[in-house]
Amino acid sequence: MIKHGLLITAIIAALTAGCAGSKKQSDDTLLMFTGSYAPADSAGIKCYSFNQQNGEWTLVSEASGVSNPSFICVDAENHRLYSVGEDSGNSSTMNMLTFEANGSDLKLCASDTTGGAAPCHIILSPDGSRVFTANYMGGSISGYTLDSTGLFADTVKIMQFYGSSVDSLRQSQPHLHQISFIPGTGTMLANDLGTDKIYVIPAPYTGEEITEIKMKPGSGPRHTTFDSTGKHAYMLTEISGEINVFDISDDKLTLKQTIAADSLNAEGSADIHLSPDNKFLYASNRLKGDGVVILKVNPSDGTLARIGFQPTGAHPRNFAITPNGKFLLVACRDTDTIEIYRRDFATGLFELCGTIPSSRPTCIAFS
């Protein structure tokens, strides 16, 4: 049954508040893909149409076949989606799905093992020729070369890491959590929650000449995002709940500010994103006082000032902002909803205006 993200109440109110807005041309409608924790025999990956002018949504298609597709990435140009299968041990997988231009007929086409347990992040290289996973329990990065059809073209290559840090419960081994690329380069950054390090890996990713950025002991590096200029990186730590601001120059990162994202010592900070205009930074916190902290970016030097906090549903593991910046959507895993918030461009604050029922959602990606 087709569902809509807006409850039809008073028409005038709907046109002036919440997720309201008049319908625009078709290019305002995005494809929105979601991942989740789900068994392989259920529809763990879904595709919606989402109107980024008025917040209306429709379920278009869904796919089964992947166990715990907790993180996804999309090759929009070629209508392909890549997903982790976040299982333990040898059953962990990376997967390729295809879909039609309108988001229909989402289906699993290929699957292979990662060689590292519990892959929790997946990303394509900037040129689209390779796909990588960060393996949380494997303490490693897995990489595949892709052929012209997007399929896995060779055997998996694994970069294995070693070490530990000061938290005996959560840092007894490496826990690779995210891979990112410095904008405009092929240089890869890998956040290791278990060793309090960021690994800097130059192309062609042979595993050689890897350098390390050592972070504060017990901080737990998790996710990194970049401003559109490529001059600043913002890295969120999970355990200490801090945002670290780096200057970027010649592929080198220099730490210039550390500011708290989590004020409750919940040790569960999760995701981080900039608004499309680079004016505001957002970071999600879980486990206590679940919600999203709002920070204003100093345009002159990229530093941050905290200006607000928005409570959300339980366990906001991941969130995404529409390309036009109007909406922020939060995957609330433990309340089985994706919450839709409308953003104020001037203040950076946002308010709830709709929900999408979804079982244990963990990741949102727009195409």
Protein model, in words:
By secondary structure, the protein is mainly beta. It has two domains: 1-64 and 327-367, no CATH class; 65-326, Methylamine Dehydrogenase, Chain H, CATH 2.130.10. It is 2% helix and 48% strand. It is built from one helix and 28 strands. It has one helix spanning 11-16, and strands at residues 29-36, 45-51, 57-63, 72-75, 80-85, 93-98, 107-113, 119-124, 130-135, 140-145, 157-160, 176-181, 188-192, 197-201, 211-214, 221-226, 232-237, 242-249, 252-260, 269-274, 280-285, 291-297, 304-311, 316-321, 327-332, 337-343, 350-357, 361-366. A hairpin with a 5-residue loop joins strand 16 and strand 17. The model is unreliable at 1-18 and 20-25 (pLDDT under 50).
Question: What does the secondary structure layout of this molecule look like, with pairings?
Answer:
Elements: H1 11-16, E1 29-36, E2 45-51, E3 57-63, E4 72-75, E5 80-85, E6 93-98, E7 107-113, E8 119-124, E9 130-135, E10 140-145, E11 157-160, E12 176-181, E13 188-192, E14 197-201, E15 211-214, E16 221-226, E17 232-237, E18 242-249, E19 252-260, E20 269-274, E21 280-285, E22 291-297, E23 304-311, E24 316-321, E25 327-332, E26 337-343, E27 350-357, E28 361-366
Antiparallel strand pairs: 1-2, 1-28, 2-3, 4-5, 5-6, 6-7, 8-9, 9-10, 10-11, 12-13, 13-14, 14-15, 16-17, 17-18, 18-19, 20-21, 21-22, 22-23, 24-25, 25-26, 26-27
